[in-house]
Amino acid sequence: MKRFFLIIPAFIFCLQCVKAQQRPQYTQYLFNGYLLNPALSGIENYTDVKAGYRSQWTGLQGAPVTGYLSVNAPLGKDFVQGDATAFPASGGLNPLSRLYTQQYQAAEPHHGIGLTIVSDKTGPITQTNIDATYAYHLGITSTLNLAVGVSAGVSHNVLNQSQITLADPLDPVFNNLDNNQWKPDLGVGLWAYSANYFVGLSAQQILPQNMFVTSTNSAYQNKTVPHYFLTGGFKVFLSDDLTLVPSVMLKYIKPVPTTYDINMKLSFADKFWIGGSYRHNDSYAGLVGFNLSSFVNVGYSYDFTTSQLNTVSNGTHEIVIGLLLNNRYKVSSAQHTF
User: Fold this and answer.
1) CA 79 to CA 66: how far, in whole Å?
2) How confident is the model over 85-107, as a mean pLDDT?
3) pTM, rounded to two decimals
4) Which domains does the chain have, with CATH numbers?
5) Environment class of 251 (CB within 10 Å of its CB; exposed 0-12, middle 13-18, buried 19+)
6) What is the CA radius of gyration of the chain?
Protein backbone atom coordinates (compact mmCIF):
# COMPACT_ATOMS: atom_id res chain seq x y z
CA MET A 1 0.00 0.00 0.00
CA LYS A 2 2.85 2.36 0.78
CA ARG A 3 4.32 1.65 -2.65
CA PHE A 4 0.95 2.42 -4.19
CA PHE A 5 0.82 5.87 -2.62
CA LEU A 6 4.33 6.61 -3.83
CA ILE A 7 3.86 5.50 -7.42
CA ILE A 8 0.42 6.91 -8.19
CA PRO A 9 1.42 10.57 -7.57
CA ALA A 10 4.41 10.02 -9.85
CA PHE A 11 2.16 8.59 -12.55
CA ILE A 12 -0.30 11.49 -12.20
CA PHE A 13 2.68 13.82 -12.55
CA CYS A 14 3.69 12.00 -15.75
CA LEU A 15 0.18 12.34 -17.17
CA GLN A 16 0.27 16.05 -16.42
CA CYS A 17 3.53 16.19 -18.39
CA VAL A 18 1.73 14.44 -21.25
CA LYS A 19 -0.92 17.15 -21.19
CA ALA A 20 1.62 19.96 -20.99
CA GLN A 21 5.33 19.80 -21.78
CA GLN A 22 5.42 16.73 -24.02
CA ARG A 23 8.81 17.31 -25.62
CA PRO A 24 12.10 17.43 -23.70
CA GLN A 25 13.42 20.77 -22.58
CA TYR A 26 17.09 21.64 -22.99
CA THR A 27 19.52 24.07 -21.43
CA GLN A 28 22.18 23.40 -24.06
CA TYR A 29 19.96 24.56 -26.94
CA LEU A 30 22.37 27.52 -27.00
CA PHE A 31 24.91 24.99 -28.27
CA ASN A 32 22.52 23.15 -30.61
CA GLY A 33 19.56 25.25 -31.74
CA TYR A 34 18.95 22.71 -34.48
CA LEU A 35 17.12 20.55 -31.91
CA LEU A 36 14.33 23.13 -31.73
CA ASN A 37 14.33 24.55 -35.26
CA PRO A 38 14.76 22.54 -38.49
CA ALA A 39 15.62 25.72 -40.39
CA LEU A 40 19.16 25.38 -38.99
CA SER A 41 19.73 22.28 -41.13
CA GLY A 42 22.94 22.84 -43.09
CA ILE A 43 23.63 26.30 -41.66
CA GLU A 44 27.34 25.58 -41.17
CA ASN A 45 29.93 24.67 -43.79
CA TYR A 46 30.58 21.22 -42.38
CA THR A 47 28.63 18.17 -41.24
CA ASP A 48 27.54 19.01 -37.71
CA VAL A 49 27.12 15.95 -35.46
CA LYS A 50 26.05 16.29 -31.84
CA ALA A 51 25.22 13.76 -29.13
CA GLY A 52 23.64 14.89 -25.88
CA TYR A 53 22.49 13.52 -22.54
CA ARG A 54 20.29 15.29 -19.97
CA SER A 55 19.41 14.05 -16.49
CA GLN A 56 16.72 16.33 -15.12
CA TRP A 57 15.92 16.74 -11.42
CA THR A 58 18.50 14.17 -10.32
CA GLY A 59 17.55 12.45 -7.10
CA LEU A 60 13.85 12.35 -7.98
CA GLN A 61 12.66 8.87 -8.93
CA GLY A 62 11.09 8.79 -12.39
CA ALA A 63 12.43 12.23 -13.36
CA PRO A 64 13.00 12.93 -17.09
CA VAL A 65 16.13 11.50 -18.73
CA THR A 66 16.85 12.51 -22.32
CA GLY A 67 19.39 11.35 -24.87
CA TYR A 68 19.73 12.49 -28.46
CA LEU A 69 21.81 12.31 -31.62
CA SER A 70 21.59 14.98 -34.31
CA VAL A 71 23.39 15.38 -37.63
CA ASN A 72 22.93 18.00 -40.35
CA ALA A 73 24.91 19.13 -43.38
CA PRO A 74 24.73 21.66 -46.23
CA LEU A 75 24.11 20.80 -49.87
CA GLY A 76 25.06 23.04 -52.79
CA LYS A 77 28.32 23.38 -54.68
CA ASP A 78 28.57 27.15 -54.25
CA PHE A 79 28.21 26.96 -50.50
CA VAL A 80 30.17 23.79 -49.78
CA GLN A 81 33.11 24.65 -52.02
CA GLY A 82 33.15 28.42 -51.60
CA ASP A 83 31.24 29.93 -48.72
CA ALA A 84 30.74 33.67 -49.19
CA THR A 85 32.74 34.27 -46.02
CA ALA A 86 35.72 32.84 -47.94
CA PHE A 87 37.53 30.99 -45.19
CA PRO A 88 40.97 29.78 -46.28
CA ALA A 89 41.94 26.16 -45.66
CA SER A 90 43.85 27.11 -42.51
CA GLY A 91 40.79 28.43 -40.77
CA GLY A 92 41.22 32.19 -41.14
CA LEU A 93 39.42 34.67 -38.89
CA ASN A 94 37.78 33.80 -35.60
CA PRO A 95 34.03 33.76 -36.45
CA LEU A 96 33.31 35.54 -33.17
CA SER A 97 35.76 38.38 -33.78
CA ARG A 98 34.88 41.98 -34.57
CA LEU A 99 36.90 41.84 -37.82
CA TYR A 100 34.95 38.79 -39.02
CA THR A 101 31.70 40.66 -38.41
CA GLN A 102 32.92 43.63 -40.44
CA GLN A 103 33.80 41.40 -43.39
CA TYR A 104 30.73 39.17 -43.12
CA GLN A 105 28.68 38.35 -46.19
CA ALA A 106 25.49 36.32 -46.38
CA ALA A 107 26.05 32.65 -47.16
CA GLU A 108 25.40 31.44 -50.70
CA PRO A 109 21.88 30.05 -51.33
CA HIS A 110 21.93 26.36 -50.48
CA HIS A 111 19.98 23.42 -49.12
CA GLY A 112 20.44 21.66 -45.79
CA ILE A 113 19.44 18.18 -44.66
CA GLY A 114 19.62 16.39 -41.34
CA LEU A 115 18.34 13.80 -38.91
CA THR A 116 17.44 13.91 -35.21
CA ILE A 117 16.85 10.98 -32.87
CA VAL A 118 15.58 11.98 -29.42
CA SER A 119 14.61 9.58 -26.62
CA ASP A 120 12.96 10.93 -23.48
CA LYS A 121 11.89 8.82 -20.49
CA THR A 122 9.72 10.17 -17.67
CA GLY A 123 8.49 7.64 -15.13
CA PRO A 124 6.71 4.83 -17.03
CA ILE A 125 6.48 6.88 -20.26
CA THR A 126 9.15 6.74 -22.97
CA GLN A 127 8.90 8.85 -26.12
CA THR A 128 11.31 8.46 -29.03
CA ASN A 129 11.18 10.87 -31.97
CA ILE A 130 12.97 10.17 -35.25
CA ASP A 131 12.79 13.06 -37.71
CA ALA A 132 14.42 13.95 -41.02
CA THR A 133 14.89 17.67 -41.66
CA TYR A 134 15.26 19.91 -44.69
CA ALA A 135 15.99 23.63 -45.00
CA TYR A 136 16.64 26.17 -47.72
CA HIS A 137 18.93 29.13 -47.00
CA LEU A 138 18.61 32.29 -49.08
CA GLY A 139 20.55 35.54 -48.86
CA ILE A 140 17.90 38.28 -48.77
CA THR A 141 20.50 41.06 -48.41
CA SER A 142 24.29 41.11 -48.68
CA THR A 143 24.59 40.38 -44.94
CA LEU A 144 21.32 38.66 -44.00
CA ASN A 145 20.15 35.10 -44.60
CA LEU A 146 16.67 33.66 -44.20
CA ALA A 147 16.22 29.90 -43.79
CA VAL A 148 12.97 27.96 -43.99
CA GLY A 149 12.91 24.42 -42.63
CA VAL A 150 10.67 21.43 -42.05
CA SER A 151 11.02 18.22 -40.02
CA ALA A 152 9.02 15.05 -40.57
CA GLY A 153 9.17 11.61 -39.02
CA VAL A 154 7.61 9.40 -36.39
CA SER A 155 7.05 9.41 -32.65
CA HIS A 156 7.17 6.12 -30.74
CA ASN A 157 5.32 6.31 -27.42
CA VAL A 158 5.55 3.51 -24.86
CA LEU A 159 3.76 3.22 -21.52
CA ASN A 160 5.34 0.59 -19.26
CA GLN A 161 2.35 -0.57 -17.23
CA SER A 162 4.56 -2.92 -15.21
CA GLN A 163 5.92 0.18 -13.45
CA ILE A 164 2.44 1.18 -12.30
CA THR A 165 0.91 -0.38 -9.18
CA LEU A 166 -2.85 0.01 -8.73
CA ALA A 167 -5.08 -0.53 -5.70
CA ASP A 168 -7.55 -2.12 -8.12
CA PRO A 169 -5.85 -4.17 -10.89
CA LEU A 170 -9.13 -4.00 -12.85
CA ASP A 171 -9.25 -0.21 -12.81
CA PRO A 172 -11.29 0.77 -15.95
CA VAL A 173 -8.91 3.65 -16.65
CA PHE A 174 -6.47 1.12 -18.08
CA ASN A 175 -8.94 -0.96 -20.09
CA ASN A 176 -8.56 1.01 -23.31
CA LEU A 177 -4.88 1.89 -23.13
CA ASP A 178 -2.66 1.35 -26.16
CA ASN A 179 0.73 1.27 -24.49
CA ASN A 180 2.86 1.01 -27.66
CA GLN A 181 2.11 3.57 -30.36
CA TRP A 182 3.72 4.90 -33.53
CA LYS A 183 2.48 8.34 -34.56
CA PRO A 184 3.44 10.77 -37.37
CA ASP A 185 5.46 13.81 -36.39
CA LEU A 186 5.83 17.18 -38.16
CA GLY A 187 7.55 20.48 -37.39
CA VAL A 188 8.42 23.73 -39.19
CA GLY A 189 10.78 26.64 -38.62
CA LEU A 190 12.14 30.00 -39.80
CA TRP A 191 15.60 31.36 -38.99
CA ALA A 192 16.99 34.79 -39.93
CA TYR A 193 20.69 35.27 -39.26
CA SER A 194 23.43 37.78 -39.87
CA ALA A 195 26.89 38.43 -38.47
CA ASN A 196 25.69 39.89 -35.19
CA TYR A 197 22.08 38.85 -34.60
CA PHE A 198 19.57 36.05 -35.15
CA VAL A 199 15.80 35.57 -34.86
CA GLY A 200 14.00 32.23 -35.05
CA LEU A 201 10.46 30.89 -34.93
CA SER A 202 9.57 27.20 -34.87
CA ALA A 203 6.79 24.76 -34.06
CA GLN A 204 7.12 21.12 -33.06
CA GLN A 205 4.51 18.38 -32.90
CA ILE A 206 1.99 20.28 -35.03
CA LEU A 207 -0.10 17.17 -35.82
CA PRO A 208 -2.28 16.49 -32.72
CA GLN A 209 -2.42 12.78 -31.86
CA ASN A 210 -4.13 10.66 -29.20
CA MET A 211 -1.69 9.19 -26.70
CA PHE A 212 -2.24 5.79 -25.05
CA VAL A 213 -6.03 5.77 -25.57
CA THR A 214 -8.04 3.98 -28.24
CA SER A 215 -11.41 5.64 -27.65
CA THR A 216 -11.95 9.25 -28.67
CA ASN A 217 -14.68 9.45 -26.01
CA SER A 218 -12.41 8.49 -23.13
CA ALA A 219 -12.61 10.83 -20.17
CA TYR A 220 -8.89 10.30 -19.71
CA GLN A 221 -7.98 11.11 -23.30
CA ASN A 222 -4.61 12.80 -23.80
CA LYS A 223 -3.62 14.53 -27.01
CA THR A 224 -0.30 15.85 -28.14
CA VAL A 225 -0.22 19.62 -28.53
CA PRO A 226 2.00 21.90 -30.63
CA HIS A 227 5.08 23.47 -29.02
CA TYR A 228 6.01 26.96 -30.25
CA PHE A 229 9.43 28.59 -29.81
CA LEU A 230 10.49 32.19 -30.49
CA THR A 231 14.20 32.92 -30.10
CA GLY A 232 16.50 35.87 -30.67
CA GLY A 233 19.93 37.15 -29.75
CA PHE A 234 22.75 39.50 -30.73
CA LYS A 235 26.48 40.05 -30.28
CA VAL A 236 28.12 42.74 -28.16
CA PHE A 237 31.89 43.12 -28.63
CA LEU A 238 33.75 43.81 -25.40
CA SER A 239 37.03 43.62 -27.32
CA ASP A 240 38.15 42.32 -30.70
CA ASP A 241 37.96 38.69 -29.55
CA LEU A 242 35.76 38.87 -26.45
CA THR A 243 32.08 38.58 -27.32
CA LEU A 244 28.95 38.82 -25.18
CA VAL A 245 25.78 37.24 -26.61
CA PRO A 246 22.51 37.93 -24.76
CA SER A 247 19.53 35.93 -26.02
CA VAL A 248 15.99 35.00 -25.09
CA MET A 249 13.55 32.19 -25.86
CA LEU A 250 9.76 32.29 -25.45
CA LYS A 251 7.95 28.96 -25.30
CA TYR A 252 4.21 28.56 -25.74
CA ILE A 253 2.46 25.24 -25.08
CA LYS A 254 -1.30 25.33 -24.54
CA PRO A 255 -2.67 25.06 -21.85
CA VAL A 256 0.58 25.78 -19.96
CA PRO A 257 1.37 29.46 -19.27
CA THR A 258 3.93 30.97 -21.63
CA THR A 259 7.45 30.60 -20.26
CA TYR A 260 10.75 32.20 -21.17
CA ASP A 261 14.50 31.72 -20.89
CA ILE A 262 16.98 34.59 -20.57
CA ASN A 263 20.57 33.68 -21.48
CA MET A 264 23.99 35.31 -21.46
CA LYS A 265 27.01 33.78 -23.20
CA LEU A 266 30.59 35.11 -23.07
CA SER A 267 32.93 33.77 -25.78
CA PHE A 268 36.72 33.96 -25.51
CA ALA A 269 37.91 34.05 -29.14
CA ASP A 270 37.05 30.69 -30.71
CA LYS A 271 38.51 28.72 -27.79
CA PHE A 272 35.85 28.46 -25.09
CA TRP A 273 32.74 30.12 -23.68
CA ILE A 274 30.87 30.44 -20.41
CA GLY A 275 27.29 31.45 -19.81
CA GLY A 276 24.28 31.65 -17.57
CA SER A 277 20.56 31.09 -18.06
CA TYR A 278 17.35 31.78 -16.18
CA ARG A 279 14.19 29.78 -16.87
CA HIS A 280 11.08 31.49 -15.50
CA ASN A 281 9.73 29.83 -12.35
CA ASP A 282 11.98 26.82 -12.87
CA SER A 283 15.75 27.19 -12.61
CA TYR A 284 19.04 29.02 -12.96
CA ALA A 285 21.82 27.39 -14.97
CA GLY A 286 25.55 27.71 -15.50
CA LEU A 287 27.04 26.70 -18.86
CA VAL A 288 30.51 26.17 -20.24
CA GLY A 289 31.83 25.00 -23.61
CA PHE A 290 35.22 24.21 -25.12
CA ASN A 291 36.21 24.15 -28.79
CA LEU A 292 38.93 21.54 -28.38
CA SER A 293 39.95 21.45 -32.06
CA SER A 294 38.58 21.75 -35.57
CA PHE A 295 37.12 18.27 -35.06
CA VAL A 296 35.50 18.18 -31.62
CA ASN A 297 33.81 20.48 -29.11
CA VAL A 298 31.97 19.91 -25.86
CA GLY A 299 29.43 21.73 -23.72
CA TYR A 300 28.14 21.19 -20.18
CA SER A 301 25.41 22.82 -18.09
CA TYR A 302 24.03 22.47 -14.58
CA ASP A 303 20.56 23.71 -13.61
CA PHE A 304 19.80 24.84 -10.08
CA THR A 305 16.11 24.10 -9.50
CA THR A 306 14.10 27.00 -8.07
CA SER A 307 10.62 25.46 -8.20
CA GLN A 308 9.11 23.40 -5.37
CA LEU A 309 10.95 20.38 -6.76
CA ASN A 310 14.15 21.75 -5.21
CA THR A 311 13.26 19.93 -1.99
CA VAL A 312 13.67 16.54 -3.70
CA SER A 313 15.88 17.39 -6.68
CA ASN A 314 19.65 17.74 -6.85
CA GLY A 315 19.50 19.82 -10.02
CA THR A 316 19.91 18.95 -13.69
CA HIS A 317 23.01 17.87 -15.62
CA GLU A 318 23.34 18.14 -19.38
CA ILE A 319 26.33 17.41 -21.61
CA VAL A 320 26.77 17.69 -25.38
CA ILE A 321 29.65 16.46 -27.54
CA GLY A 322 29.97 17.81 -31.07
CA LEU A 323 31.93 16.64 -34.12
CA LEU A 324 32.77 18.86 -37.11
CA LEU A 325 33.01 16.42 -40.00
CA ASN A 326 34.22 17.38 -43.48
CA ASN A 327 35.46 20.63 -41.95
CA ARG A 328 37.42 21.80 -44.99
CA TYR A 329 38.05 25.29 -43.59
CA LYS A 330 39.38 23.87 -40.30
CA VAL A 331 37.30 26.22 -38.18
CA SER A 332 37.04 25.37 -34.49
CA SER A 333 33.76 27.22 -33.85
CA ALA A 334 30.54 27.83 -35.73
CA GLN A 335 30.53 30.48 -38.48
CA HIS A 336 26.80 31.17 -38.77
CA THR A 337 25.47 30.34 -35.30
CA PHE A 338 26.64 31.85 -32.02
Assistant:
1) 34
2) 66
3) 0.86
4) 2-325 (2.40.160.40)
5) buried
6) 21
